Amino acid sequence: MGQTKIIFIIVICAVIFAALCALAVFLLLKRKKTPRYYLKNSLMTHVENEYYKIFDSFFGDDYIILPQINLASVIEKEGSGYRNELFRNVDFGVFDFNYRPILLIEINDSTHLRKDRISRDKKVNAICKKARIPLVTFRTSDGIDRSVIYRDLKKYL
After folding, report:
1. pLDDT digits (tens, 9 = 90+) for 28-38
2. Quick one: average pLDDT of 69-77?
């Protein structure tokens, strides 16, 4: 075999190798961008469940307490701007037996200290204030104090 044929075979092999590497990288990147879906273990976190038990023990006979309430489920928006600002959840909603919203509850853990969460929380507070629905916030860093929870919710119930 001549030297030209050997160089040609090496070049062809290098091109094939490069193409295979590019294909492998493409497939890896595509796989990472493809969303994966999986079922959560629970609708509520362990801490949210502990708060729920307390709310229910105090007010469960008189009100309906539901977790993970989307603002768009209880608040309407008129006028300009995007409705998607209502596509945020609060941890709990308290309703009368006709499912009329009475108040909303947030349980703030350390993630609410992040800049993006602070901004989100300000927006949720402003929306609730404009809609005239109380938003009661409890901070997990304060611990779970049943008397504080009762006092803060009793103002509205």
Report:
1. 776 666 778 99
2. 94
- pTM for this predicted structure: 0.74
Q: What is the CATH number of domain 46-154?
A: 3.40.960
Judge whether 93 and 69 are in contact, CB under 8 Å. yes
Enumerate the H helices of 42-98 as residue ranges.
46-59, 71-74
Sole residue written with tokens 């995007």: 82
**What digits encode the pLDDT tens for the residues 109-143?**
777 667 777 888 899 999 999 999 999 999 988 88
CA distance 55 to 156: 13
Question: How would you classify residue 132: left for phi > 0, otherwise alpha for psi between -120 and 50, otherwise beta?
Answer: left
Query: What residue segments make up the domains of the chain, in order of their start?
Result: 1-38, 46-154
Residue 47 burial (CB < 10 Å; 0-12/13-18/19+)? middle
* Residue closest to 65 by CA, chosen among 51, 46, 45: 51
Under the phi-then-psi rule, with left for phi > 0, alpha for psi from -120 to 50, and beta for the rest, what region is 143?
left
